[in-house]
Design a protein that fits this description.
The protein has about 190 residues and is mainly beta. The protein contains two helices and eleven strands. Strand 4 and strand 5 form a beta hairpin.
Length: about 190
């Protein structure tokens, strides 16, 4: 639905739809509808809410170039669940849980630049700048630099082997040789 009193007053839009089995709700405000009609620029505020993802964009839309520029914030309870929802499922395993992203965003054509980025995934916290590019083959290319005070990979490791329940037999404390499941990374190319 679209609520529009005139082209010179803010327009409010709401939408609800099902996407890959999840309900997706959109709410937004276009501050200057006339600017959109005349290929100009308008402030834009959009909120997306679905079980795997909540995201907000507060910035500007350029109707002539199609560019979006502003502040982006997104979070969810499980990155693993969100990737599955988007069509890149990962095998069951530990980690890839709660995530939170905030950044200044510039999106134009097939490129999205995220600057002053703050990223949290499980116990990892990082800051930096990333550029995301949708490649012609459908893959996502990610380039940039991130800085993190520490990266604890224990979350992604399989549980240690358990010793016998009786008899005082101890389990090996050697580094596990079980493979890490990183199949979700097949959805993108990265140069970080």
């Amino acid at each position: 639905s679209l609520s529009l009193a005139s082209l010179d007053q803010p327009a409010h839009m709401t939408a609800a739809l099902d996407y890959r089995g999840q309900r997706l709700n959109l709410d937004g405000t276009i501050t200057k509808p006339r600017a959109v009609m005349e290929h100009g620029q308008t402030p834009l505020n959009v909120r997306l809410q679905a079980p795997p993802l909540m995201a907000n964009f507060n910035g500007a839309f350029n109707a002539q170039s199609g560019a979006l520029q502003g502040q982006l914030a997104a979070n969810g309870a499980s990155l693993r669940r969100m990737l599955s929802w988007l069509g890149t499922p990962m095998d069951q395993g530990a980690g890839f849980g709660a995530f939170n992203v905030s950044a200044a965003m510039l999106h134009q054509d097939q490129n999205t630049a995220l600057t002053h980025l703050t990223l949290r995934l499980d116990s990892i916290q990082a800051t930096g700048n990333l550029t995301l590019t949708q490649l012609p083959n459908g893959r996502l290319s990610v380039a940039g630099a991130l800085t993190a005070p520490q990266i604890d990979l224990n979350t992604y490791m399989p549980p240690p082997a358990q010793g016998a329940q009786a008899g005082g037999v101890s389990a090996s404390t050697a580094w596990s040789t079980a493979p890490l499941d990183l199949t979700g990374l097949r959805a993108l190319d990265a140069n970080l």
